[in-house]
Amino acid sequence: MALPKKLSLTINREVFWRLKREGKVIQTPLLSAKYYLRKTGAESRASVVIGTAMDKRATVRNRLKRLIHQALILFLPKRTGIDMIIYPKKGIIEADREMVKREVGFLLKKASGNDLSL
Fold it and tell me: With CB atoms 3.0 to 4.6 Å apart as the test, which of 9, 16, 41, 60 could cross-link to 47 if both were Cys?
């Protein structure tokens, strides 16, 4: 399932450089994320970046993107004002759906700084 357009972060030059310059990094055992807090009330947006270093097979990379997108669809609308790029780590290939959901939820909770129920 693809991420809806309104929740998707299109990686253009301006957004990429702002995240690189001013973004903060969060690490979990399965995921790494770079995020930037925008003004309050703005819709949160996210993107998933998986390179061929993760796995050379596109089917594996696409499956991982779908798992992460499903978790983002669940949690992202509860948060406001976050731009985030998620970079999966190699260990996520063996992870199940619940573990990925937990990790994505933790990333968003940590990035937003408030304790909305996940």
Answer: 9
Sequence-distant (6+) residues with CB within 8 A of 52 are 61
Q: Return the SS3 of 76.
A: helix
Q: What is the pTM of this model?
A: 0.86
Could you confirm whether domain 5-112 is CATH 3.40.50.12780? Answer: no
Rounded Cα gap, residues 87 and 67, in angstroms: 13
Contact 62, 24 (CB under 8 A): no
Tokens of residue 3, six digits:
């991420």
Residue 9 and residue 12: Cα distance in Å, rounded? 9
Residue 46, C-beta contacts closer than 8 angstroms, at least 6 positions apart: 3, 7, 8, 9, 72, 76, 82, 83, 84, 85, 86
